[in-house]
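Following up on my earlier message about 2-acetamido-2-deoxy-beta-D-glucopyranose. Here are the inputs again, as you asked, copied directly from the submission form:
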Amino acid sequence: MRSMFSHPAILFLWIQSSSGWMHPKCQIYDSSEDLEHFPTWICSHIPHHAERYTAACQDVTAIEEDLLGLPPNINTLCISMTHGENRSMSLGFFSQFQDLESLHLPSGNSHLPYGNSHLPNLQYLHLDGLGSGCCDCHFGPHTFRDLVKLSHLTIWGYRLSAMAPDVFHGIPLLQSLNIIEPCVYDLSEILCRIMNIKSLIELKIEAPEIQSINQSNCSILITNESMKPVFNNLTFSDVSFGEITHIEEGALAWLQNLTRLTGAFSQEVLLDLPLSGIKQIQDFSCSGINVIDIESICNVVFLLSIKKLYLYNANTSSLSMSSVELCTGLEYMYLHGIFCSTPYLEWHFISSLKNLNQLTIAGLEDNRLDICSFQKQPIT
Ligand SMILES: *[C@@H]1O[C@H](CO)[C@@H](O)[C@H](O)[C@H]1NC(C)=O
Ligand SMILES: *[C@@H]1O[C@H](CO)[C@@H](O)[C@H](O)[C@H]1NC(C)=O
Ligand SMILES: *[C@@H]1O[C@H](CO)[C@@H](O)[C@H](O)[C@H]1NC(C)=O
Ligand SMILES: *[C@@H]1O[C@H](CO)[C@@H](O)[C@H](O)[C@H]1NC(C)=O
Ligand SMILES: *[C@@H]1O[C@H](CO)[C@@H](O)[C@H](O)[C@H]1NC(C)=O
Ligand SMILES: *[C@@H]1O[C@H](CO)[C@@H](O)[C@H](O)[C@H]1NC(C)=O
Ligand SMILES: *[C@@H]1O[C@H](CO)[C@@H](O)[C@H](O)[C@H]1NC(C)=O
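Thanks, got it. Here's what our run produced:
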């Protein structure tokens, strides 16, 4: 600490006011009271515990210069940049913050996102490439190996195909991996890079460009590994695709039990979903590319033991006691309907949904709300 104060350029930054450390680009929080004013939009994905030393740096234009004078013992560091900035930093730049537990970084030009800083306490790393569209950052093999405690990793807006096939190897404690907007069309670009992360408990994939769910052939990417993914401990999986036009048989067998699946399906492709190898989906959010009949979706609900259904573009005219019969396992249903052929909903269908706790129907006009016609049979 003494050596920090001996640097004249830094000294003025260390003036503490009643509201915390003064710093031109960073707000610094060191108590739970301070955190009430925390700018959560900068680093909403990073836990910022009370009693933790947190710095949130906004409008950063040059990482190395603008972070000058930060206390070396901060635990959480969030950086957001403006456009046209200098994102480069020298290798090992973050090594000066040895107590870092959480780091939220915009994408850099450097091949290694955090320099090659050895951060022995880092648990949360959020890499945000969005500022540069799809970041073509060439992360090499074992990029995160030096982060020995890393348990939560988010990669947002980085083109995964630009990274080495074994980019995620060597993170022994990784529990949670979020891959958001990986800018790839082929699911194997994702799967083959993550299939060996044995410790994963939570997996989130949001890949709107993927339209065709094909069998992954990982021997293209990884020649020397077993082809079978090994997610033995996965308890949370949330996968979101774009408009699905094709599903190959068995293509999702590596997921088996999904917590949430989101995608846009035509009625024809929807019926292929049970052949994808998925055994169970808890929450299914389905946008219909064309109008989806209730009987078709209920068939899928039954085969995949779906508990919560969000259906957009539903043919509400096809709602009836018999058409929802296979939906009887549903606990929650959201329907965004198309009300073209019949003006009134046939509310009696509800009595077939024995396990339903909550029903939301969107798109109804007030004068069509004829739920009173149902009152003879109480809703349980
Ligand atoms: C960007 O920052 C790095 C590290 O601080 C520096 O070496 C480099 O000269 C800067 N580049 C420009 C264009 O300012
Ligand atoms: C998936 O398979 C279909 C049909 O075989 C093919 O047309 C498509 O190009 C494949 N997509 C990818 C991303 O490999
Ligand atoms: C899976 O979870 C069990 C129980 O928590 C744990 O003992 C085991 O080490 C975990 N496996 C991996 C590969 O992390
Ligand atoms: C997978 O890709 C490799 C290399 O391109 C090829 O030799 C192999 O036949 C493919 N396997 C399947 C099942 O398509
Ligand atoms: C395959 O992996 C094993 C164990 O990781 C290693 O010993 C071997 O050298 C690898 N072979 C090739 C061809 O990369
Ligand atoms: C799927 O996961 C849920 C929640 O973890 C669990 O209740 C259910 O039994 C699992 N189903 C299968 C088939 O593994
Ligand atoms: C909606 O369902 C009704 C009743 O099953 C059917 O007559 C109609 O053709 C369907 N509309 C569309 C657009 O599929």
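One observation from looking it over: Helices lie at 2-5, 8-11, 63-66, 187-194, 267-270, 294-303. Hope that helps, and feel free to reply on this thread.
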